[in-house]
Amino acid sequence: MRICLITPEPDHPLLAAATAVLRVGGHRVDSLDPAAAGAAPDDLADVYLLKSRTAQALALAEELERRGAPVVNSAAATALCQDRTAMAELAVAAGLPFAGTRTYDTLSGWASGGPLRSPVVVKSRYSRREDLVARVDDPVRLRELAQAWPEEPVVVQEFTPNSGWDHKLWAIGDRLFAALRRSELAPGSERGPARTLAVAGLPDGWAELVRRAGEVFALDVYGVDVIDSGGGTPLIVDVNAFPGIRGQAGAPQALASLALRRARDGRIGAGSAGRGR
After folding, report:
1. pLDDT over 80 (residue 35)
2. Which of 98, 120, 164, 246 could form a disulfide with 91 if both were Cys (CB 3.0 to 4.6 A apart)?
């Protein structure tokens, strides 16, 4: 099989380790930097792994999909997870326990709308590197953010009291992984490395919740950020397409297996289509 990575960083730890697994199995692994690739190549790979969220990467993935190539995750699913407003709307419509979310055209516009009534979490509406994610407890902090990010489209979520630790839950196909990490919103905290958790030790229903989120968002490789809002009650605060999943034993092997499975499915589908003509 020929697998192609859509990424400017094929040496990312998860991708590099999965590439090693695939090459040991005799498979070919290439990469495409979406910023330099331009149009999709004429010679299509058996499957593409979309580990980039830039506009160029999404356009490249869409073109590959139009030409019949399997892409993990799809361009549409990846784009959906970048828009935190659309993410929240879909999650709530599907009955997932997602943080209540309000959307504002600009941070400065929301900040000028009235007094802050309770602690909130403010995030850039469009997820990207170095975006805005901050807890706001008082008018002073709100004014600081509004001055630094005046024209930023934002979503605002009511702050839910919690332990100060985020549960990072990941899925690669049917394999789940979990870790605990200090929340970046916890006052005065240093996040430090994630602490791996046993999936079997998660509260009842959490593993099923992660799988349900994957179905709702049509994702094969994804992360679900969950906080415990009390007594093991989960609250989803974010869904990510193709996160890094660093340091999780078995993750590279799971990604390699998923890539091969999707490649084989693509070949079977192409063969069936050919027989039908």
Report:
1. yes
2. 98
What's the CA gap between 100 and 116, in Å, rounded?
16
Compute φ and ψ for 37, nearest 5 degrees: -75, -35
- In this structure, the answer to whether residues 269 and 171 fall within a common structural domain is no
Are 210 and 62 in contact, with CB atoms under 8 Å apart?
no
Statement to judge: residues 56 and 154 lie in one domain:
no
What is the DSSP track for 40-63?
A: PPSS--SEEEE---SHHHHHHHHH
Q: Kindly tell me if the per-residue pLDDT of 275 is higher than 60.
A: no
**pLDDT tens digit string along 142-191?**
999 999 999 999 999 988 888 778 899 999 999 999 999 888 776 655 66
Domain tally, the chain: 3
Q: Would you say residue 28 lies in a domain? A: yes
- Cβ-proximal residues to 219 (8 Å cutoff; 6+ apart), any chain: 73, 77, 81, 171, 213, 239, 241
Torsion of CA 43, 46, 49, 55, to 10 degrees: 40
CB 219 within 8 A of CB 241: yes
3-state secondary structure of 141: helix
